[in-house]
Design a protein that fits this description.
The chain has 20 helices and eleven strands. With 494 residues, the protein is of the alpha+beta class. α8 packs antiparallel against α10 and α8 packs parallel to α18. Bound molecules: protoporphyrin IX containing FE.
């Protein structure tokens, strides 16, 4: 990799040298200027969401990186070649992670800031600071017992499936894939009931991305701080307590930022891996024959999705302070954020003969110092979640043609908007009936700001409403979705 100064001269001062760095305004001006006279491609567009592979193919005309906009007025270089992606990911010297200089040039309401703004977490730091944070996180993740994790997943999956199994149809995204990782994390953190209610509700609202998301984000911060304070006072046997007890001695802000990263990294991408792989399994004839058989090809479907539709499609933001040439000569200009497209790199035509379920060299988990430390946990959660659906609903099928499924616009995620399915109804254990006694998960309005919250703490307007959900009981009691009752039973261990 060649580093040049903005005029193209090799060598120059070391990256980040304050004596040679441009003022933010100059950087912004340069960042807004493409290296060539190419118009940036909008990664936030509906066209990109509908067919990202076509957009990546078009961008390849520019070389191993293309000029894109992450949101209106936010230019970036998108690295789309496989070799180029590896070169960038393995070269933190040329591609530092600290976004603070860049983010000063962005308006505070810039929609990509929540994903890209500086935090004291592993993603946004390099060198010793990164190593310190990363070791604390990976050591704590390594303490998760796989058997216990499997139990958490099975318990959560059964509860969610119980709620729709006898209905004969469901949206496996809203009613299953979106909720399951939240429930699993809730158990990994061993949240006390009152906080658990708020945490689950906030996370669901944030991932819903609706009007409540911003407020839920603020409330999530308060919940996390409360949980951290509680665990600092009363340690337990859970992920956060392990992080607090780690010899690196993270301070409270660092704990907040690691927890945010764990929740952001561990929930949304897992949800999308589950949904994307279920879509493949239910729509591709190569997998259809085996669904009700003994050996389900779930792992093959997961590997194929990690190659073709990785849940985190584009990320790993870096901020070169000098022009940097990629191996094929494509120049990444200084001051313009660099984002790695794991998805486009995986589809690099030069790999055509190498892709396949036997080859796991895809970049869905990234590579280099920031490669995902939660891979094994993610694989356990996703594969068990999928197996549960196929076991419990063996004749499940898509309720729409595959090409009628829609993808959520956005530069980073590869995420379906819904995954409607139908299946022959399956009997589920009888609901105990009658009014449910107060649940430990029922908020007493502490932390809910007076808004409605469900028994499980998930917003009552979260998953798509259905006729069953809306039906008011004959005795005039307020209607309550059955999945809330199921979650309450689950919480009580019934
Ligand atoms: C399907 C699920 C997942 C996918 C596709 C995924 C993907 C990724 C990718 C591509 C990165 C690199 C980001 C970067 O370079 O800035 C990353 C980083 C990270 N992931 Fe995951 N991840 C998943 C699940 C998880 C889970 C379950 C956890 C934890 C429980 C987790 C924790 C992290 C952390 C802490 C980092 C930052 C590492 C660092 O910067 O050193 N991820 N993940």
């Amino acid at each position: 990799m060649t580093t040049t100064d903005p005029a193209g001269h090799a060598g120059g001062p070391p990256p980040g040298c304050p004596a040679h760095a441009s003022a933010p305004s100059e950087q912004a001006a340069r960042a807004a200027m493409p290296a060539t006279a190419v118009e940036p491609t909008a990664l936030y567009s509906a066209a990109f969401a509908a067919d990202p592979a076509a957009v990546y193919a078009e961008l390849r005309r520019q070389g191993s990186a293309g000029f894109v906009e992450l949101s209106p007025g936010v230019p970036a270089s998108l690295v789309i070649g496989y070799e180029a992606a590896l070169a960038v990911l393995r070269d933190p010297e040329s591609f530092p992670r600290d976004p603070r200089r860049w983010q000063q040039t962005m308006p505070p309401d810039c929609p990509v800031l929540p994903m890209m703004q500086h935090r004291r977490s592993a993603v946004f730091n390099d060198g010793d600071v990164h190593t310190r944070l990363r070791v604390a996180v990976s050591d704590s993740l390594d303490r998760i017992d796989p058997t216990t994790l499997r139990q958490y997943v099975e318990r959560s999956a059964d509860t969610l499936i119980d709620d729709f199994a006898d209905r004969g149809r469901a949206d496996l995204l809203a009613e299953y894939a979106r909720l399951l990782p939240i429930l699993v994390f809730n158990q990994l953190l061993d949240c006390p009931p009152q906080l658990s209610a708020s945490l689950v509700r906030c996370l669901a609202a944030i991932f819903e991305g609706g009007a409540e998301a911003a407020e839920a984000n603020g409330e999530l911060g308060r919940c996390m701080l409360e949980l951290i304070t509680l665990r600092q006072r009363e340690p337990g046997n859970d992920l956060l307590s392990w992080l607090i007890a780690h010899p690196t001695r993270l301070d409270t802000q660092e704990l907040m930022d690691q927890l945010t990263m764990l929740l952001a990294g561990g929930i949304e991408p897992v949800q999308n891996l589950i949904a994307n792989a279920l879509r493949l399994l239910l729509s591709d004839a190569r997998f259809a024959g085996d669904l009700s058989g003994g050996s389900l090809p779930v792992d093959d479907a997961l590997v194929e999705i990690l190659w073709t539709d990785p849940p985190l499609a584009n990320f790993g933001p870096a901020y070169p302070t000098r022009n940097v040439s990629l191996p094929d000569g494509t120049v990444l200009p200084a001051g313009r954020p660099v984002v790695v497209s794991y998805a486009a790199a995986n589809l690099d035509p030069s790999l055509a003969s190498d892709r396949g379920t036997g080859n796991r060299a895809h970049l869905a988990w990234s590579a280099g110092p920031h490669a995902c430390p939660g891979q094994s946990q993610a694989r356990i959660i996703a594969s068990l979640a999928i197996e549960k659906v196929l076991d419990r609903l063996p004749d499940v099928e898509l309720a729409l043609a595959e090409d009628e499924l829609r993808w959520r616009p956005g530069p980073f995620q590869r995420a379906l908007t819904a995954l409607p399915v139908r299946f022959p109804p399956v009997a589920v254990p009888e609901d105990p009936g009658g009014p449910l006694p107060p649940s430990p998960l029922t908020p007493t309005d502490g932390g809910t700001g007076g808004r409605r919250a469900t028994t499980a703490g998930v917003p009552s307007d979260g998953p798509a409403p259905t006729a069953e959900r809306q039906a008011a009981p004959a005795d005039g009691r307020p209607s309550r979705p059955r999945w809330m009752a199921a979650l309450t039973r689950w919480w009580r261990g019934q």
